[in-house]
Design goal:
By secondary structure, the chain is mainly beta. It folds into 8 domains: about 240 residues, Class I glutamine amidotransferase (GATase) domain (Rossmann fold, 3-Layer(aba) Sandwich); about 50 residues, no CATH class; about 50 residues, no CATH class; about 50 residues, no CATH class; about 50 residues, no CATH class; about 45 residues, no CATH class; about 70 residues; about 80 residues, Sandwich (Immunoglobulin-like), CATH 2.60.40. The protein is flat and about 130 Å long.
Length: about 700
Amino acid sequence: MKNPCPLFLAILSVCFFADPVYAQSCCDGDSDIILCYLSAADFCASNQDNCNEYSLDGAFMENGLAEKLASPQNFGPNGTVDCNLVFKKLENITGVQTINDDGCDIVFVPVVALDPVTLINDLNETYIPQNILDAIYQWSTVCESNLVVVTQAEAKTWGYTMENANVNPNTPVNGSSLFSIFNGPFGTLPFFNQGGTFQGVFTGTPASGVEILANDVNGNPTVGLDMATNDIVVGDIGIFCSGGAGVVSPGPGISNNNDILVCNIFALACQLAEDMVTTTQIFEICPGETVTLPDGQVVGALGTYVDTLTAFNGCDSIVITEVADHVIPPTDLTYNGCDGDGYSIIVNGQVYNQAYPSGQETFTTSGGCDSLVNVSLSFTAPSFTAVTTVLCAGEWLVLSNGDATSIPGIYVDTLTASNGCDSIVTIDLSFTSPISATTAISTCPDEPLVLSNGTLAAMPGSYVDTLVASNGCDSVLFIELSFYRTDSTYFIREICPGETVAIDNLSYGAGSSYAVVATNIFGCDSLLVTNLLAYPPPLVNIDTFVQVTQSVISPFNNHIPPHYGIEWSPSEVLSCPDCPNPVILSNNGVTMFQISLTDSTGCVWKYPISVEYVCNVFVPNAFSPNGDGINDLFQPFSSGCPVQAFSMDIFDRWGGKVFHAEDLSAGWDGTFHDKVANPGVYVYLIKLKEFGRDQLLSGEVLLLR
């Protein structure tokens, strides 16, 4: 654990510690937060291009992370976080006191993986001198607010080992003590990604313990809070990088999950470095109650009280106490009943009923606060209604108690209204007399008589129909029904396929019939019926499907007598538009032809012919980009069929994309970022479309040197 300043020494400007002895105020109170960093360039010897990329002033951070931290829109008095970050480069570190003298609040440790002697990159090792890493570690333990962000092999000093085994995406551990780095002032992220060729997970942690803050897909820890130092340890420096080493966006803007994560980490660092802790507590009291404030003062008046205390580390701790009135909302007791139902209730010793229906009672709670109860009872009187009811002969009046009557007179019925109370109805009941009549009806045969019950009377004879009179009662009608004479005439007409005959704005085709209606002397319909028949189809043999390959250019085998007229569509790609078996002139992807035949009757017969083009694409399995002009490019070779869409992606064995093309003629020359790629096996994924057919080709290709 970090060494807090003893409470009895908090008034001193400097806290003193033994074995070793360092001088640092753990409550500096500065308005600026000093972000100190090591420059990898100081440890790189001559080959700085590959060495200095992974520090705050390096190629992978200076245009991304550094711009975001320096932007006043993100960090500053008017920024997302009210924290003014000031960058300071650490130089000539001889011990902890050097870092103290530089006024550092945060130290960001770069990755230096280039051996200055052999000039070979080894991401499992650090080439920052051990005495410098020891000084940074010891400085972190001096004060609670001293924060270090360290990654990869540089974290060995903190007791961590890493392995290049991460599988993206990485997800936060819910409920962790530093969950604010995933849900903070710069936004919330459900996941983030590592980048570059080394993507680390924790394979060893110190005995002093670590709180895991994030894991990869396989559950391996990738971000942690070191319990001994309260420092943030990250498996991969690429989380903070842009360009080819990570996905942090260039410029000051916040546009992806990694942007949110890195800015939330430094927002938390600002909060830790500012030292002061503010706590708010709220009390609700009843009249006469009191509250004891953190400084021991007892108050009973409502209001806000602010106490400034001294924390265990000697820094200010502000406690805000809000004392508010404890308000108990009144309770409403209501009842809606009927006149004379006998309902009553006792509240606070008072009887409430129809004679005493409303009032207010006051109770006192155990805390001494008043609690009001409002009582409101209502009782509804019965309603009275008089109605006159006329029923048909033979009907019955049924009262609410189940009694039924068919005798005229005055009746009283007691019902239940919608409010549940009595509704008394006085009924004056009377009955009507029945009505009957006789009639003769003549109609056409196709117009049967429809009786009132829906029955069709289609035969001559006597019928009895029961109708409803204007008063709503039955009226009996006796009917004598007869039908007039009618007849029909039939015709036959032949038409071409697809041809129609228009009659009365309706179209009729072969296989159907239509009727023209004439009226006879009785006014009934007389039908003239025409049956439409189709001419018989030609006696020909027409292909329905043909296959075109690179060696077959005339695939048709149609047998058509010479007296038929011939027309092909489309005809632009054929050798002739009116011969039975033309030659396909160009392999341009026409997949459907139609041949139309005209016979001696003038009818046109249309036959669709489906065409399939056999296209094969060759993909080599090895190439040698050595500049000898032979097999220097990796690219697929088309069969000659037109390619409508094409894309090709090539990946290394880690899944990193090394090449992308959307032009069939563009091949991979074995380079990545203008550098020669290592020999070995790569994976390709090719998507192309020929004649509307999508193809997906994948496999391995061997790069030889």
